[in-house]
User: Which sequence fits this backbone?
């Protein structure tokens, strides 16, 4: 009896002590084997809300009658944008929670806060731009070349609109795109392959309309360098990492085709005179589609 009791009191014989050790070893084994599951639910919600709340935002503003949303009140697009600014960082945080390895918590907080700040700036800029379009503002022209802006008095008001354009098109878009979660992977299920096309197509819209090509290309090549470095160490991407990498690769292909198609467009060339020539889809729409109607 006493011997049995002493055995039960020994650390190695306690059932509560062996369970954490076994669980810890199984977690380590799973991480070593790279068995991170593909987060179909989160990636699906991500793709869906991107298409509905971001890409569908200007379409909703064209569909809903203007009488329902007067120009001195938030439009349906503004409500879409508000929902996007809440849901996107929430999904990013959920993806980070499921990642077996994450960045330092302070860096995650700063990145999410920066994203929300940029998205909020973008919301205000888009909201004002939407109302200017109803007054005759043309997206394919620069601020100073727009007829309704030229007639503003005093002329210092033009500087204010250029400041708004800077906040929306440069600062806001850049801050929105600065946070990209990346994960590691080795094989991609069929469900992930089906999401690559709509996901990559949305990122094409984000890169071109958001004018964040430089940020995107640096992010993509940083991902590529990391993949090659890890492959040299015999480490491979898991399903979530492959999904994001293939989506970005497909986006790069679409951007290249888009630029090649509009390479010789004289009007868009004048609006985007820099070395990096990536026209905005809505500028193309107002120039070549809506003008015909």
Assistant:
């Amino acid at each position: 009896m006493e011997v049995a009791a002493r055995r039960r009191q020994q650390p190695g014989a306690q059932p509560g002590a062996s369970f954490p050790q076994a669980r810890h070893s199984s977690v380590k084994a799973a991480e070593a084997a790279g068995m991170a599951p593909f987060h179909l639910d989160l990636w699906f919600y991500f793709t869906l809300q991107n298409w509905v709340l971001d890409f569908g935002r200007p379409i909703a503003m064209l569909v809903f009658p203007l009488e329902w949303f007067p120009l001195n009140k938030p439009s349906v697009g503004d409500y879409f944008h508000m929902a996007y600014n809440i849901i996107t960082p929430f999904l990013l945080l959920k993806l980070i929670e499921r990642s077996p390895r994450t960045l330092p918590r302070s860096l995650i907080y700063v990145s999410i806060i920066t994203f929300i700040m940029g998205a909020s700036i973008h919301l205000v800029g888009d909201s004002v731009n939407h109302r200017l379009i109803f007054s005759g503002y043309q997206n394919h022209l620069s601020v100073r070349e727009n007829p309704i802006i030229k007639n503003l008095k005093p002329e210092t008001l033009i500087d204010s609109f250029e400041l708004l354009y800077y906040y929306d098109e440069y600062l806001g878009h850049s801050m929105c795109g600065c946070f990209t979660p990346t994960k590691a992977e080795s094989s991609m299920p069929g469900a992930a392959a089906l999401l690559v096309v709509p996901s990559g197509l949305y990122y094409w819209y984000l890169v071109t309309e958001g004018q964040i090509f430089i940020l995107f290309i640096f992010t993509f090549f940083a991902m590529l360098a990391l993949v090659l470095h890890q492959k040299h160490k015999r480490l491979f991407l898991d399903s979530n990492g492959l999904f994001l990498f293939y989506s970005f690769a497909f986006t790069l292909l679409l951007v290249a085709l888009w630029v090649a198609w509009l390479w010789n467009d004289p009007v868009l060339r004048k609006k985007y005179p820099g070395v990096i020539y990536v026209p905005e889809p809505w500028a193309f729409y107002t120039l070549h589609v809506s003008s015909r109607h």
